[in-house]
Amino acid sequence: MFIFEKAAGNKYIVKTNQTIRGKFLKDDDGYYYYWPEVKSEMCWDAFTMKTIAGKLDQLNKKWDQEISTNLISKIKI
Q: Based on the number of CB atoms within 10 Å of its own CB, is 29 exposed (0-12), middle (13-18) or buried (19 or more)?
């Protein structure tokens, strides 16, 4: 099971059993991305990857809505 721990600023620490697996960091485009801790990585199954993807979707949902509402609606074609 993953633990998603809010850290300072726009950062989350991703842990399992108190071991840091990676981080979610907000990039210049406003979206969060997952950065694994390479030194301790092993192979990941589909369930694990879906869990990470689900958390990214949750973190990015508000920004996606803002982009859709405020930017895309103002583009004139």
A: exposed
